[in-house]
Amino acid sequence: MTQSPTLSRRSSSSASPLPRKSRQRGADARAGYTFLLPWLLGFIALTVGPMISSLYLSFTNYNLFEPPKWIGLDNYTTLFQDERFLQSVGVTVSYVVFGTPLKLAAALAVAMLLNSKRRGQGFYRSAFYAPSLIGASVSIAIVWKAMFGDAGPVDQGLSFFGINLGGWVGNPAMTMPMFILLTVWQFGAPMVIFLAGLKQIPADLYEAASMDGAGPVRKFFNITWPMLSPVIFFNLLMETIHAFQIFASAYIISNGEGGPAGSTLFYTLYLYLRGFSDFRMGYASAMAWLLVIVVGIITLIFFRTSKSWVHYSGDAK
Amino acid sequence: MTSTATPTQTLPDAELAHYNPKSESAGTKRAKSTVFHLVALALTAVVLYPGLWMIASAFKPNAEIGGSNTSLWSNNFSFDNFVTAMDGIGGVSTLQFFTNSLILAIGAVVGTILSASVSAYAFARIKFPGRSIFFGMMIATLLLPFHVVIIPQYIVFQQLGLVDTYVPLLIGKFLAADAFFVFLMVQFMRNLPAELDEAARIDGAGHVRIFTSIMLPLMKPALISTSIFSFIWSWNDFLGPLLYLNTPDKYPLPLALRLFVDQTQSSDYGAMIAMSVLALLPVLIFFLVFQRYIVEGVSTQGLKG
């Protein structure tokens, strides 16, 4: 891919092109694999090997102390009768389905607000980005838990306005909104990416639309959305996959239990509890593989449907 | 919110034909600018509130944090919480946790820089059979939920007797397991002119020479972004240490915080929040110092925070 036309011209014009070329190719192959060695080793030892091994384990009963016992599809069939598992699926799905679009909508709205030549833009951009850097940390989970504690500052602040929600952390109905607020608060990372995308849209498109009498709504749907669609696609894919894997905040806020009433039992938390508290490694492996399959299917659907709404600038020309 | 987004929308129809952004009167311009700053500042206040609340609470006496305190101010600010927090937990001082976090983060940076740059050079600059297939697989690992590998990895490290050491936490960094950084560097290197290595090759330089004396110096921006992010990700990592470390004197800060939460059971709120602030301090300092690099890195490479 990086071979430039000048190189091929140069080598073919040399005295004995063929042997030199093939010798070069052999040397390149050796050098290529030598340089790739760290990644290749890691890929085999830390990704491919473990993936195959966990696929095998998912068909066994394994507690780390006795040898794995083959049980066929039992883990998978048990999963769908396991109420805690089904609950963890529900919790995670509602987090992904509500949290991700809200976060991206906030990111896009703020990016559009900031997309102008005004003073202070850099400051706002940095300020809004900051939560993305620390949002998944244990420290922020502790702060969130304290702020949203029953009768904590958020609750009190809202009751000042006459809103009484009955607490957040201890109220099963309010824990999900609390986690969604935590992810929406981290809108900065996708916002920065949106902002970079918005800057790529030529200003004369908007000027031409204005002259044709297009209002803000039409401009958004006819210019901003299609022009930004590759960036929207990227953000949507990455944020969705990311959202499935929330762990530290869920663990800290619920003391590693997923409570109250299982309302914060996120998929990864349940996987962790099964694997590393109950030492049901086979069962947890089955959960891990289901997650991979689901994420794989979602990625596939995203790419398939993207053809109908994602426009790459190359298409038009 | 969207209505304030594009300032050109509100132009009266009559003016559209002669539309020229510079022809707006100074008054409208100032009014729009004021609205923009009001909205942006209000948003800043909301976004920064949790952080400010955390810092303020760390200086407040316990009685003022819990319960109804939404205020960021107190007449009783003191360093008491930090003094308690520095004592640590489980017989281990907070300084020790800091050192542990630092060892892990520096190890992660060194490992990632070494392994990712070398691997990226192979992907970006050397032609060899199988390259595009491996590149595709590397991209696929970006999307792979890493929970699928943690159980077998744990089993292997346990059998090797490496649980409760830093090996499982660092080995992946030295084997370019964070595909994001490899990808970032490949993208960066592909944008460097190919003539550079061609010229060096004609002068008889091999790949090692080209890599060390041409590529590495030119890759500085990518190396800096990688260092910043791998430091912060390692510093904030919770699941890895939770899985592999058992003895408190090896804990990095996030695990120490969890221990603190478990053992004090929110009885000493102030110290808990002070410790949370201490744990975030390096990240915040990093952010203030490298702000440009971080935000630019995200906007050009799509790096996740």
Automatic annotation (TrEMBL), chain A:
- Species this protein is from: Pseudarthrobacter oxydans
One Pfam family name from the record?
Answer: BPD_transp_1
Q: Where is the ABC transmembrane type-1 domain?
A: 89-302
The subcellular localization recorded is: Cell membrane
Q: Which domain of life is it from?
A: Bacteria
Q: Which InterPro entries does this UniProt record tie to the protein?
A: ABC_transporter_permease, MetI-like, MetI-like_sf
Q: Enumerate composition-biased segments (Low complexity).
A: 1-19
Instruction: Name the family the entry cites.
Output: Belongs to the binding-protein-dependent transport system permease family.
Q: What is its main location?
A: membrane
What is the membrane topology here?
Multi-pass membrane protein
Instruction: Locate the region Disordered.
Output: 1-25
Q: Which PANTHER family match?
A: ABC TRANSPORTER PERMEASE PROTEIN (PTHR30193), ABC TRANSPORTER PERMEASE PROTEIN YESP-RELATED (PTHR30193:SF1)
Q: Does the keyword Transcription regulation apply?
A: no
Q: Which CDD domains match?
A: TM_PBP2
Query: Mind telling me what this protein is named?
Result: Multiple sugar transport system permease protein
Name one cellular component (GO) term.
Answer: plasma membrane
Question: What biological processes does GO assign it?
Answer: transmembrane transport
UniProtKB/TrEMBL annotation, chain B:
Give me any GO biological process, just one: transmembrane transport
What is the protein named? Multiple sugar transport system permease protein
Q: Which residues form a coiled coil?
A: none
Q: Where in the cell is it found?
A: Cell membrane
The UniProt entry's GO CC annotations, sorted and at most eight, read: plasma membrane
Q: What is its main location?
A: membrane
Q: Polar residues: which segments have biased composition?
A: 1-11
* One Pfam family linked to the record: BPD_transp_1
UniProt topology in membrane = Multi-pass membrane protein
Q: Where does the record place the region Disordered? A: 1-25
Statement: the UniProt record of this protein carries the keyword Thylakoid: no
Q: Which UniProt keywords apply?
A: Cell membrane, Membrane, Sugar transport, Transmembrane, Transmembrane helix, Transport
Belongs to which family?
Belongs to the binding-protein-dependent transport system permease family.
